[in-house]
Amino acid sequence: MGKIIRKEHSKENPIDNRDIDFTKADELSDEDIEERAKSDPDSLPFTEEEIKEVKIRRRNRDND
User: Fold this and answer.
1) 13-35: per-residue pLDDT in tens?
2) DSSP of the chain, one letter per residue?
3) Where is the composition biased (Basic residues) (predicted)?
């Protein structure tokens, strides 16, 4: 299993991706990416039932 990396970020401390090599990801086709996402048990797509239950909340601008 891969290593989980957590990075805290905010407007004052944005995510710094300079240390990530995106070369392999850039070489993948959209179909490859979709197939890999579908085969990843941690990235399974929502069911129609789950989509109906999604609640979208706007972020409170006072807490930015």
Assistant:
1) 887 888 888 898 899 999 999 89
2) -PPP------SSS----TT---HHHHHS-HHHHHHHHHH-GGGPPPPHHHHHH-------GGG-
3) 55-64
